[in-house]
Design brief:
The protein has about 400 residues and is α/β, with parallel strands linked by helices. The protein has helices spanning about 5-20, 35-50, 95-110, 135-145, 160-165, 200, 240-255, 295-315, 335-345, 360-365, 390-410; strands at about 55-60, 65-70, 75-80, 120-125, 185-195, 205-210, 215-225, 225-230, 260-270, 280, 280-290, 320-325, 330, 350-355, 370-375.
């Protein structure tokens, strides 16, 4: 790796990230949703970069841009991430993984000697799930597990996913062709900002992911009785909002009691017909529960439901708890973890292992082949925010480590 210059690579990565970050649906904030004109602009830019890197480029029906570097063997190492964003996003979540893959492939293309396996750099388009209520459509199609019922989903403007694919210039009939043939994909590796503060706290630029946390989403709805804020005595109230407030604190307390094994978040609450002088009669909220251990997460969910039911009975509230999402933990392949750890050591880092609390395309790709992830330190642990930032130095080290990993990879 004498010809690898992490500082120069990091500077290139920063330039590419900034350029891609300018492709947005809105002038004053970053917004790039699945199969939108902004997505097309980003895909076209990524296509140009792949061509410049010496890759053969194709696009499937779900808009995944695929850059291929041929090897001497039939197997392929898949490297990728996503180019869609949340609303008012940062520039690094997803795009850096695509940029890292392109820069690593460019290194081997310029080396002029084929690897014993091919490399496919994948730029997925639907990881964030902002436009439609389903996520990972792009990577699921590549893994051969696309849910065709999602074609009927509609966005806020009433445009179905099937129609959006057609407007984008592709055909839903071609979705099955996006899937890799069995046995072709040797592994999937993703480079991603940590989206958390652990690496910064440990003063390490890179980390090796051992699992992608499982997720359970609960929709909790309370039915009380609306009433006048000034005339109904406190002891006679059936206050749905007070029940919701206790539920939020229950989730926080129980998660803290796990000492980091489980995290619980209430990020949305809905109070229909809310008014300052009315006791809330109906309230709905969502609870997001995540853990790197399915056993811990499932135990938490059971205990949480039990406590909320007991509280609702005590407050004389009707209660409905519905599980709207239940995704198991996705373990990262041990041999890939070891290879990434060796690569981190090779570039001067400490191979710190940690779980990813956020979901990733790797969850879908794990249904196709073994997966691994390399985390990159991000300032303040901030993501899904314009303040999201990874330094050029850290990005350069990440790409250098990825190159080292590829050199030692055995399909």
């Amino acid at each position: 790796m004498a010809d690898v210059n992490p500082a120069a690579i990091g500077a290139r990565a920063e330039q590419m990230i900034n350029t891609l970050g300018s492709v947005s649906a809105e002038p004053n904030r970053l917004l790039r949703t699945f199969l939108s004109p902004a997505h097309r602009g980003a895909a076209n830019l990524v296509t140009k970069w792949m061509v410049d890197a010496g890759l053969t480029v194709s696009e499937d029906a779900l808009g995944t841009v695929r850059g291929t570097l041929a090897g001497s063997g039939a197997k392929r190492l898949l490297i990728g991430s996503h180019i869609d964003t949340v609303v008012e996003a940062g520039m690094f979540d997803g795009p850096f993984g695509v940029v890292a893959g392109i820069l690593a492939a460019d290194h081997f293309a310029k080396a002029g000697r084929p690897l014993p396996f091919g490399i496919d750099v994948l730029a997925f388009g639907d990881e964030e799930g902002v436009r439609y209520s389903a996520t990972l459509a792009s990577s699921s199609a590549c893994a051969g597990h696309f849910d065709f019922s999602t074609l009927e989903l509609v966005d806020a403007d009433g445009v179905s996913l099937a129609e959006a694919i057609t407007r984008y210039g592709n055909n839903p009939v071609d979705i099955p062709a996006a899937a890799y043939a069995p046995g072709i994909a040797a592994a999937y590796v993703e480079v991603h900002i940590e989206q958390g503060p652990v690496l910064e706290y440990r003063n390490q630029p890179l980390g090796v992911v051992n699992s992608i946390a499982g997720q359970t989403y609960l929709n909790v709805e309370f039915l009380g009785e609306a009433g006048h804020a000034g005339t109904v005595p406190m002891l006679l109230r059936r206050d749905a909002l007070a029940g919701a407030a206790e539920t939020i604190l229950t989730a926080e307390r129980m998660a803290r009691d796990t000492k980091g094994e489980v995290v619980g978040t209430v990020g949305h609450i809905n109070v229909p017909a809310a008014a300052s002088n009315v006791i809330a009669g109906n309230v709905a909220l969502t609870v997001d529960i995540r853990s790197g251990s399915d056993t811990a997460r499932n135990a938490f969910v059971d205990g949480f439901k039990k406590e909320v039911r007991e509280m609702a009975d005590r407050r004389h509230l009707g209660l409905s708890i519905t599980t709207t999402r239940n995704v198991p933990t996705t373990p990262c392949d041990i041999s890939i973890q070891d290879g990434l750890a060796a690569a981190v050591k090779a570039v001067g880092g400490e191979p710190l292992k940690l779980s990813s609390g956020a979901g990733h395309d790797g969850t879908a790709m794990a249904k196709l082949c073994p997966i691994g992830m390399l985390f990159v330190r991000c300032r303040g642990g901030i993501s899904h925010n314009p303040a999201e930032y990874a330094s050029p130095d850290d990005m350069g080290l990440a790409v250098a480590a990825l190159i080292h990993f590829i050199e030692g990879f055995e399909p």
